Amino acid sequence: EAGQDGFAVEIDEEISVPREQELEIPDKLSYIVVVIDELADLMMVAPSDVETAIARITQLARAAGIHCIVATQRPSVNVITGVIKANIPARIAFQVASKIDSRTILDAMGADKLLGKGDMLYLPPGSAKLIRTQGVLITDEEIQKVVDHIGEQGKPSYEMEIHEKLNKPSISGGESECDEDEELIEKCIEVIRSEQRASASLMQRRLRLGYNRASRIIDELERRGVVGPGKGAEPREILIDLDGGGADGSGQSLV
């Protein structure tokens, strides 16, 4: 998700560069392919953000030779939304369990009657006619050869801003290591004051976080004296003033 968001931000920044600051465009531009291996995992965490990022990439980058491949094994309307479908004109469906799944992917039935083992239906861009074709079996050795060949075409160029975002340290048992984490903790304290309770599941729902990160935030709040230790299924004790003060009622921030 972080890589996808970073890539979308990078696109916006490139588009907003004033003309006098534009860099010289090389004679040959490389193709860029953005691959999302399992869309359902991302949609469970932050569906609105993921949907917006995919729409931005597909709308703005398509004309520049930047392509997006999105895959999922759970073709429900909550995963493949109308906005995502509208911005992905070419679609492929392998064998699915029901007619509803087939309609979700292709807007037509048929994928539920496929035979499996690479049997698939292809919907070309700008066409309503499905094409039945056979996906080939690619061995691990063939994949390695293709990867090696691509690697020999030129040195990789890494976008360090995206790399840094992907590897940004999360909240740990020590001091928080970036301003974004501090802002997130402030938001968590606001949620605790408004809801008058504290739990990892609450932070997941209100702030759209993954379970692991929400749990680490709760542990950090415990270390800072915002909430008490966990007691199994019982709610954590809140140690701060719910009217806006700190743990000692002084009104000073604990963050």
Structural account:
This protein starts with a helix and ends in a 32-residue tail after the last helix. The protein is built from ten helices and five strands. It is extended and about 65 Å long. Helix 1 (2-15) crosses helix 3 and helix 2 (39-45) packs across helix 3 (47-61). It folds into two domains: 2-146, Rossmann fold (3-Layer(aba) Sandwich), CATH 3.40.50.300; 168-255, Winged helix-like DNA-binding domain superfamily/Winged helix DNA-binding domain (Arc Repressor Mutant, subunit A). Strands 3-4-5 form a three-stranded antiparallel sheet, with helices on one face. Helices cover 42% and strands 9% of the residues. The longest helix is centred in the last third of the chain and has 17 residues, at 179-195. The chain has 255 residues and is mainly alpha-helical.
